[in-house]
Amino acid sequence: LDTKVQRLGSDRPSIQDIEIKTFTVDHLQLIYKHALPTERLKLVWCLNCSHGAAEIGRVQWEDLFLDQPHPWAKEGLKVDSGESDSWCGFLRPKTDVVGWWWLWPETVELVRSWKNDRQQKLKRELQPSERMLLTDTGANLYRDSSRNAQSSFSNEWSRLLRRVAKEEGKDAVPRLPFGTLRDQMSNWLGSDKNRAVLASVGLGHGIPHKGDKLLYKHYSNRPWTEFFEAQKEYRQH
Asked: Of 21, 52, 116, 129, which one is least surrounded by beta carbons within 10 A?
């Protein structure tokens, strides 16, 4: 028997489906306006660091380096940084690709507030090896062992968008998934080759560009400084 699945003419994908759909600044403003503190943390963090649920959900407290120069500056990395800067650095899940992100002041403020909230709820100090996002009972918000590990993120995000629609109108903000936040900065950087390399660094890709296998083989040679500057530009945007 011929068991191949036949493609129909109606299966032909549209060129419009290839375009990455993202939120506008006005959309993000409305979402932030109606977001609860924990939702604001996820929103701002993912915009800041190009993270999705799998990345922010696995960040541990020991991955944060607050109010200090870049930790690799002592190793010779030429990064203009000081005591007023804060960073997040960790190995990307599954691929073990090194990622570094400069944290916006707004992000740091939300992180500090979140940490105080968790410690009050759990009535104890948080350990460096614990994840940043914990439930009220101290369980990991991102459940690695679950078949749908990010369900809590998507459910919370859906409730937030429904809240925005109720208050601002059903068409005020498009119903895009939580993972859209991961694409916001990379989409803003555009398709220019050099900017695309920065986007790949932010997304934690192993090799930013096909032609850069030698230039970016070693992490110390990746354009960290340029990426951090791009993060600052995106913050202003």
From this structure: 129
Whether 59 shows a pLDDT value over 70: the answer reads yes
- Rounded distance between C-alpha atoms, residue 50 and residue 199, angstroms: 9
Residue type, 133: L
- Residues 6+ away with beta carbon under 8 Å from 110: 37, 40, 41, 44, 45
Convert the pLDDT of each residue in 85-111 to its tens digit: 999 998 876 677 788 999 999 999 999
Query: What's the rounded Cα separation, in Å, for the pair 231 and 236?
Result: 9
User: What's the 3-state SS for 125-143?
Assistant: CCCCCCECCECCCCCECCC
Distances in Å between the alpha carbon of 89 and those of 70, 110, 181?
10, 18, 19
| Tokens 């951090």 found at | 228
| Contact assessment for residue 172 and residue 200, using Cβ atoms and an 8 Å cutoff | no
Predicted TM-score (pTM) of the model is 0.85
